[in-house]
Design goal:
Elements lengths: L2 H15 L3 H28 L54 E2 L12 H19 E3 L4 H18 L4 E4 L2 E4 L5 E3 L8 H8 L3 E7 L5 E7 L8 H4 L4 H6 L6 H15 L6 E9 L33 E11 L6 E11 H4 L5 H10 L3 H7 L5 H17 L14
Antiparallel strand pairs: 1-8, 2-7, 3-4, 4-5, 6-7, 6-10, 8-9, 9-10
Helix pairs in contact: 1-2, 3-5, 4-5, 10-12
The structure holds protoporphyrin IX containing FE and 2-acetamido-2-deoxy-beta-D-glucopyranose (2 copies).
The site of one 2-acetamido-2-deoxy-beta-D-glucopyranose has 3 residues, from loops.
Pfam families: HODM_asu-like
Protein name: Mannosyltransferase
Organism: Meyerozyma guilliermondii (strain ATCC 6260 / CBS 566 / DSM 6381 / JCM 1539 / NBRC 10279 / NRRL Y-324) (Yeast)
Length: about 400
């Protein structure tokens, strides 16, 4: 019992001693009212604390959680297909460190679209005309999840971007392109293809197996720049990352990531951002690391860059959420892409990016193709940083919080 209640009780006994019955009755009523309020508050509280029916599941056996509803988002403020600029994610720090670097995500910010939507969409259309089977796949194990994903998008997109998407009884129509997608009642189309055609993102579906591993079972990977769905399809998280020589994966990431995937609940979506430097301006596939259709591709095949205008900043915003009905994990990868020369105009960026790059340990250098652009990017960033510092944009005056 809390302070207030014991205070009330004391005052009731005091009243009995002094025989002031009216005050005693008032005191008793007061106690009853307090209990009534407490009792009436307890009931809703119990139902608010939802039991996670999958907390003790056997791996690979998910019970659909029909109580979980994704919050409906408000419209993106003033969103306009021509004028809403891409978010300025600048996910580099003065010192690079290898961590999972995930942070909680607001459900409303699940999918980010902007004035590059049409450009991304056209890349996807053009590429799938040539090689759709290579760029998207929905295996039988991922099929229900892919349709659940489309249902989630059906709820989300028209509320978040009402000037771009409209609900139809069995799907979504696109108010800008005139496209219409039917899927609520099943479709012969690959559901992951439909999902990709709605978004700027690439998307992967990870399915939990009976051994607790998360395996890539469905995806639409169309603008990934330097990796191919066919190389990663059907692989578990660990092999996806080790086959690409992700630096220190085993030492610093594997255990934390595997635990995270198993434990992630539907109400706890997350995001992470990364960055790369690319030695050509091709968003869908970085030709410098090799022809997309070759057997093996990699930085080792790339020519060293010669000119700063060749260099692009590629940054991904990745989101991870678990869907309630199938329990599948949906991984979205949204790429932000701009010339280094444009990026370097921004206050404090040249010094911070330069310091970040210079702090890469050898494994990170190898993974990120450091030797192929360092002789061009380092002198350039140094010069730009000096110019900014002469104007007062020094590390000392840099805000501590900057965009991811
Ligand atoms: C918490 C989740 C995850 C973390 C912390 C993580 C971490 C990383 C890191 C550190 C890299 C190196 C590039 C970078 O700095 O981003 C990477 C690369 C990559 N990740 Fe992940 N990852 C996660 C989830 C996933 C998932 C679900 C997939 C499923 C498709 C995936 C696929 C890849 C691929 C394909 C690469 C490129 C590998 C290559 O270069 O061949 N990651 N990841
Ligand atoms: C966006 O720009 C295009 C081409 O200039 C134009 O046709 C369209 O009406 C514009 N849309 C909006 C919403 O302003
Ligand atoms: C969906 O399919 C069912 C049966 O296959 C049919 O009765 C129903 O009209 C369809 N709904 C739409 C919106 O197409």
């Amino acid at each position: 019992m809390n302070q207030t209640n014991s205070g009330v009780l004391r005052s009731v006994f005091y009243d009995l001693d002094s025989s002031k019955w009216s005050r005693t009755v008032c005191g008793l009523i007061f106690i009853m009212v307090i209990f009534a309020i407490k009792y009436s508050q307890k009931k809703p509280k119990k139902s608010v604390v939802k039991r996670d029916i999958n907390a003790n599941r056997k791996y690979g056996h998910w019970t659909p959680d029909y109580n979980f509803k994704t919050p409906t988002p408000p419209p993106y403020p003033n969103w306009d297909i021509n004028t809403t600029r891409p978010q300025p994610y600048r996910a580099f720090r003065h010192k690079y460190s290898i961590t999972m670097a995930i942070r909680n995500m607001d459900f409303h910010q699940w999918i980010e679209l902007d004035n590059e939507w049409l450009k991304f969409h056209n890349h996807k259309l053009e590429r799938t005309r040539e090689k759709k089977q290579e760029l998207c796949v929905t295996s039988p194990e991922a099929r229900d999840a892919a349709f659940e994903l489309l249902d989630e998008l059906w709820n989300y997109l028209p509320h978040r971007y009402p000037s771009l998407f409209q609900q139809t009884p069995d799907g979504l129509s696109n108010l800008v392109t005139g496209e219409s997608w039917s899927f609520k009642n099943g479709t012969k189309e690959d559901p992951m293809y439909i999902a990709a055609m709605l978004l700027q993102d690439d998307i992967a579906i990870m399915i939990e197996q009976e051994d607790g591993q998360y395996v890539l079972k469905g995806g639409a990977i169309m603008l990934a720049g330097f990796w191919r769905l066919k190389d990663k399809f059907n692989l578990p998280l660990s092999a996806i990352h080790t086959s690409g020589d992700v630096p220190k994966y085993k030492e610093k990431l594997q255990t934390g990531m595997e635990k995270f995937f198993i434990r992630q609940t539907c109400d706890k979506p997350v995001v992470r951002n990364n960055y790369f430097i690319q030695t050509d301006g091709n968003l869908p596939w970085s030709k410098s690391i090799g022809d997309e259709d070759k057997d093996v591709v990699g930085w080792y095949t790339a020519e060293p860059a010669k000119d700063i205008n060749q260099l692009y900043f590629r940054s991904e915003r990745q989101s991870l959420r678990r869907l309630p009905k199938t329990g599948a994990t949906i991984f979205t990868i949204r790429t932000y892409f701009l010339p280094i020369t444009e990026l370097a105009q921004e206050p404090y960026v040249p010094r911070r990016l330069l310091n970040g790059i210079r702090s890469w340990v050898p494994e990170v250098q190898d993974y990120r193709g450091y030797t192929k652009f360092k002789d061009v990017v380092e002198p350039y960033l140094e010069k730009m940083a000096d110019e900014q510092e002469a104007k007062g944009y020094t590390v000392e005056t840099e805000p501590e919080v900057y965009p991811y």
